[in-house]
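Reopening this one. Same input as before:
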Amino acid sequence: MKTRLSKIIQYILFPSIGIFIIWQLYKDQKADEIMQVLKNDMDFSWIGLSVLLGLLSHVSRALRWRILIEPVERKPRFSNTFWAVMTGYLANLVFPRMGEVSRCGVISKYEKMSFTRVVGTVVVERLSDLLMLILITFVVLFLQFDLFLVLLKNNVNTSAITNLLTSPVFYAIVVLLVVCVFVVIRYSSRIKFLRHVRNLWKKFSDGLGSFRKIKNVPAFIFHTLFIWTMYFLMIYVCFFSMDQTSVLTIDAGITILLTGSLGMLAPVQGGIGPWHFMVIATLKLYGISADAAGVFALVVHAAQNSMIIVVGLIAFLVLPFINKTTDEA
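Same output, byte for byte:
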């Protein structure tokens, strides 16, 4: 029953929410008008450059992940790491939040590594990205504080957050989690299932500890900065694809990087819907018309995800072949 409910939520509820948001955003735009903009007003060479920059960010992510895996296991082959990253992105388009698990499974299978340890390295990687997102938030607050306040006021229900933090149910859940952690720690050596959990946690902790054991810290920092620079440029170069958005500045690019990233946090396949909503809302604050903002968000998101689909499908074909060849050699 729980498994069925989980599948319904993943495969039906979340995609439906994304589709509903897309419908709300584009219901007033006619398909023929969008097609006219795409044919006459869109310079797709900038979109192509954006896709290339996105691919470079994925290459850099694979290289950074190798740096984290090496101390707790051994350095995996770049080919397996890169294709694993791309299968993970593809999985996210089908199952929300399954990309990290999928790419860990690929590396564990083809590199003969501990799945749990590899998952720990991905958690460290995501924490690094979270720190970058926090840094970008401070930059946006410094550069565009008034605009950011308007965006929050227009789109965030602060009363709902207040109600959550004052709800006794919220604190009851927190207490329950603390009790569960205490039980696992206190009785982990006496109960077989808890011993298994403890062993898994140890391997997971080994993965988490990969950050302390990094052999090339400058390279890790470089790739982290490079990845997010590419994310920014992926948005910024697309400004030049349309006359209306070509007047936008670097400040606008950084702000949309932040709001778009927040949209991607929603548990919806590929951020479909929430990402569009956040980007369109931000562009409108910069004076871009709703129609132009809608086309911009539609094209940029579609281009990046088309690249992920193509390269991700290639990964599924290539991975068994290159590893079979290696095994035979």
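So the earlier flakiness isn't reproducible anymore. For the record, Residues 29-324 form one domain.
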